[in-house]
Amino acid sequence: MLAGVYQAKKKDGSIYYRSSITFSNKHISLGSFKTQESAHKAYEKADKILKDKSLLLEQLLYEEDILHFEKIVSLANFRDNKIYMKTPIYLHANYFSYYISPREEYKFDIDDLFFYSSHKIMKRGGHLFVNEYGMQTNLLSRYGIKNFAVAGRDYDFANGDSFDYRYSNIIVINQYYGVTAVTKQGNVYYETQIHINGNYKIGTYETETQGAVAYNKAVDLALSHGVKKNFPENYIPELSAKEYTEMYAGLKISRKYVNYLKTNFGEH
Q1: What is the pLDDT of residue 110?
Q2: What fold does the segment set 1-60 form as a domain?
Q3: How many whole angstroms separate alpha carbon 255 and alpha carbon 171?
Q4: CB 3.0–4.6 Å: which of 12, 88, 95, 237 could bond 70 by disulfide?
Q5: Residue pair 166/93 in contact by the 8 Å Cβ criterion
Q6: Cα–Cα distance for residue pair 91/107, rounded to 1 Å
Q7: How many C-beta atoms surround the C-beta of residue 241 within 10 A?
Q8: Is 265 exposed, middle or buried (0-12, 13-18, 19+ CB in 10 A)?
Q9: What percent of the chain lies above the pLDDT cut of 90?
Q10: Computed from CA positions of residues 20, 22, 28, 30, in that sequence, does the dihedral angle turn out positive or negative?
């Protein structure tokens, strides 16, 4: 058997080959391959990466390779930083890079290293998420950004780099569902809308908190009129139960919206 290769057998009895390498007393699996020759090539490439520091990660990722790009990142990081991680992380002085693909490098604060070293980031429909406690969690929620938030409207990147997820680079603009900051005559107000077969304006409020409570009130009205929809609701930790109740009772809701509910869903 060629170096770094051992034979394995599937449940159906068919033969395949696994490749692995040991470096600095660390045994690293390199993957499964159809032939002994391809498994050996993976071993040779891993050996070269681990022993040759002149092979820069950026260069390696732009080459066609028998090794998966995630494994290349892990090997290069182990070589340069003496820490092996199964997720495709490369450590820098004050941050780390997480590679979603050979061309997509996301930056994170070192404080998040433990989390991302054990959670694989996935991308679908332009959204980044991880599996956590059996659920798919949007990465934006770690910054207090709501699901379905829109870049440029609800949050932004301070340096303009949408791949830089370091906390200092994330600007939360609208943190609550249904609430959008608007500027009128030089003053900032908060416009609240709810979506029921289209967007309906609830009102414009002086503070973001008022807008968030108004949205919750609009949700309660919709549900009380029999609207069958799973609305998200705003959690507002800065308000005590008494403060929330008083603000909720005092906020005015658009008469047009109330009439829409009565006309289309009946009195409650």
Answers
A1: 96
A2: GCC-box Binding Domain (3.30.730)
A3: 34
A4: 88
A5: no
A6: 10
A7: 7
A8: middle
A9: 75
A10: negative
pLDDT in tens, 230-249: 998 998 988 999 999 999 99
Distance CA 60, CA 66 (A): 11
Strand-pair category, 89-91 with 199-205: unpaired
Q: How is the chain split into domains, by residue range?
A: 1-60, 179-265
In the beta sheet, which residues pair with residue 157? Answer: 170
Whether residue 148 has pLDDT greater than 80 = no
Contacts of 201 (CB under 8 A, 6+ apart): 191, 192, 193, 254, 256, 257
Q: What is the pLDDT of residues 252-264, one digit of tens each?
A: 999 999 999 999 8
Question: What is the structure's pLDDT at 267?
Answer: 66
What CA–CA distance (Å, rounded) separates 218 from 176? 14
- DSSP state, 177? T
Full-model pTM: 0.79
Structure tokens at 213: 């409570």
Q: What is the dihedral of CA 64, 70, 75, 78, to 10 degrees?
A: 150
Q: Which residues of 27-45 are buried (b: 16+ CB within 10 A; e: fewer)?
A: ebebbebeebebbbbbbbb
* pLDDT tens-place string over residues 152-188: 888 999 999 999 999 999 998 888 999 988 888 889 9
Distance of alpha carbon 247 from alpha carbon 157, whole angstroms = 32
Return the amino acid letter for 220: D
